[in-house]
Automatic annotation (TrEMBL):
PANTHER family registered for this protein in UniProt: THYMOCYTE NUCLEAR PROTEIN 1 (PTHR14087)
Domain EVE residue range list: 2-133
InterPro entries assigned to the protein according to its UniProt record, in alphabetical order: 5hmC_binding (IPR052181), EVE_domain (IPR002740), PUA-like_sf (IPR015947), THYN1-like_EVE (IPR047197)
The protein's name: Ubiquinol-cytochrome C reductase
Length: 139
DNA sequence: GCCAACGTTGGC
DNA sequence: GCCAACGTTGGC
């Protein structure tokens, strides 16, 4: 199983919105970046991801699961863009802030740190463990 | 609110 | 195919 990170600006689409969608989940649409799209194409059913709030909060706030593999993005007619569907699994006991991530040596190589603008990104097994650790939440 | 970094677009 | 111009993102 692979791990990922989904970034969202909470005023546009936040963790609470994601939770409200329940088991059905929701399209992670609106991505207009090739790198991010390519990662979504690689995602498999059951892959897990972190849900990250950008801007004001800058924290990982929860865990999501891929519940539909890549398909055309329903918010555009442009067939270049695809997306997966994700559903909320559980919230973090404690949100893990970007500051914490930056100061933890285990996470120094995270894409979140290296390329802060990429909105969908891969997370390694070790990074997954480390962040769940910091969030006092089971992986 | 500013601005640096990055990605995309379009003229040549 | 290059690169300047532009738009957007997101940390600070």
């Amino acid at each position: 199983m692979a791990y990922w990170l989904f970034k969202s600006e909470p005023n546009t689409w936040g963790w609470d919105d994601q939770v409200a969608k329940g088991e059905a989940g929701e399209e992670w649409d609106g991505v207009r970046n090739y790198q991010a799209r390519n990662f979504m194409r690689e995602m498999k059913l059951g892959d897990r991801g972190f849900f990250y709030h950008s801007m004001k909060e800058k924290s990982v706030v929860g865990i999501v699961e891929v519940c539909a593999e890549s398909h055309p993005d329903s918010t555009t007619d442009d067939d270049r863009w695809e997306c997966v569907n994700i559903k909320a699994v559980r919230a973090f006991e404690v949100p893990v802030s970007l500051d914490q991530i930056k100061t933890d040596p285990r996470l120094a190589e995270m894409v979140l740190v290296k390329n802060s603008r990429l909105s969908v990104q891969p997370v390694t097994d070790l990074e997954w463990q480390a962040i769940c650790d910091l969030g006092k939440t089971e992986p």
